[in-house]
């Protein structure tokens, strides 16, 4: 019996990555994010009064107290996070923010609807003053054609 050696060829390993499934997953995720991103913007519609005032540039996100045309209060601590609050809750939350950030660093603005009465804006200013806020700004919408 003579020894016959059977040689089997070993397959060479591929060192390439198949990226086609990754591209498919990425496209599906892109479509999901494009559809859901506009739905994540939370807020209320406030028709701000018009003015010729220059816009203010800030380093930190300011605290914004929004008042709708029915006199309801909304508090936005971070951009895009509106929360319906009562007058008592507004005073408590802003007071805690003043203690946390300090009186000088905290920027508070009131965005009152142009169609609402002026009384809720004055109430908000009094609540903020009692909570320890020293400076309160009033927000407005720039007029069409006004310089920025």
TrEMBL record:
Q: Chief location of this protein?
A: membrane
Membrane topology recorded in Swiss-Prot or TrEMBL: Single-pass membrane protein
Q: Does the keyword Isomerase apply?
A: no
The UniProt record lists the keyword Transmembrane helix: yes
| Any one GO BP annotation for this protein | protein transport
User: InterPro entries under this entry?
Assistant: ExbD, Tol-Pal_TolR
Q: Name one Pfam family in it.
A: ExbD
Where does it live in the cell? Cell inner membrane; Cell membrane
Q: In the UniProt record, which is one GO cellular component term?
A: plasma membrane
Give me the segments passing through the membrane. Answer: 21-44
Swiss-Prot/TrEMBL keywords? Cell cycle, Cell division, Cell inner membrane, Cell membrane, Membrane, Transmembrane, Transmembrane helix
Q: Name one GO molecular function term.
A: transmembrane transporter activity
Q: Which HAMAP family match?
A: TolR
Q: State whether it acts alone or in a complex, and with which partners, per the record.
A: The Tol-Pal system is composed of five core proteins: the inner membrane proteins TolA, TolQ and TolR, the periplasmic protein TolB and the outer membrane protein Pal. They form a network linking the inner and outer membranes and the peptidoglycan layer.
UniProt function note:
Part of the Tol-Pal system, which plays a role in outer membrane invagination during cell division and is important for maintaining outer membrane integrity.
NCBIfam families, per database record: tolR
Please give the family membership noted in the entry.
Belongs to the ExbD/TolR family.
Report what the protein is called. Tol-Pal system protein TolR
Q: What is the lineage of its organism?
A: Bacteria, Pseudomonadati, Pseudomonadota, Gammaproteobacteria, Lysobacterales
């Amino acid at each position: 019996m003579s020894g016959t050696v059977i040689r089997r060829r070993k397959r060479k390993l591929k060192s390439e990555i198949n990226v086609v499934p990754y591209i498919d997953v990425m496209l599906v995720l892109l479509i999901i994010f494009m559809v859901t991103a506009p739905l994540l913007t939370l807020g209320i519609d406030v028709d701000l009064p018009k003015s010729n005032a220059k816009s203010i540039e800030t380093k930190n996100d300011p605290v914004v107290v929004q008042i709708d045309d029915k006199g309801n209060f909304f508090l936005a601590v971070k951009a895009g996070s509106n929360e319906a609050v009562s007058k008592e809750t507004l005073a408590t939350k802003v007071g805690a923010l003043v203690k946390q950030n300090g009186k000088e660093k905290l920027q508070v603005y009131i965005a009152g609807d142009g169609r609402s009465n002026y009384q809720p804006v004055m109430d908000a200013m009094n609540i903020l003053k009692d909570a320890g806020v020293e400076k309160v700004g009033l927000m407005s919408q720039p007029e069409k054609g006004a310089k920025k």
